[in-house]
Write a structure and sequence with these properties.
- 71% of the residues lie in helices and 0% in strands.
- The chain has 133 residues and is mainly α.
- It has helices at residues 4-15, 20-27, 31-38, 49-56, 60-63, 71-105, 111-130.
- The relative contact order is 0.09.
- Helix 2 (20-27) crosses helix 3 and helix 6 (71-105) packs antiparallel against helix 7 (111-130).
Length: 133
């Protein structure tokens, strides 16, 4: 059983200088129930969540392990966007390099233009290297 909720309840309860018994009394339950939550052996009854959230001064969604505003999903989306942009830079850099090489071999491009395009390709590839974590 995941104990993230239990750790959160324990932490918030202690921040409020409240014993398990005091929290239990406010919820009209036993301190043994609170102990089980905090040890990850059980979860609070869903009907207790609003009152528990109020007592611990936490958003019910956060207590239930959900980020209001979907912070996790937003982080994933941002990560995917960044990965996609980096892939585009890699592809553009590679395509510019290959295209420049082919056009040079065929004699269809002068040296000055080749240098400019190769510089752009190096910039694109350099951006991806700088942004690696």
């Amino acid at each position: 059983m995941d104990n993230e909720m239990g750790r959160l309840i324990s932490s918030l309860r202690k921040e409020k200088n409240m014993t398990q018994q005091e929290l239990a009394n406010k919820l009209n339950i036993t301190d043994k129930a609170v102990s089980k939550w905090e040890r990850g052996l059980s979860y609070p009854d869903i009907s207790l969540i609003p009152k528990l959230s109020e007592i611990l001064d936490i958003d019910p969604n956060k207590l239930l392990g959900s980020n209001s505003g979907n912070d996790t999903q937003n982080e994933i989306k941002k990560s995917n966007i960044k990965d996609t942009i980096m892939l585009i830079f890699k592809c553009v850099g590679f395509a510019l390099s290959v295209g420049t090489f082919v056009l040079n071999v065929m004699g269809k491009m002068n040296t000055g233009d080749s240098i400019k395009l190769l510089s752009l390709s190096l910039i694109c590839i350099g951006i991806t290297l700088i942004n690696k974590e």
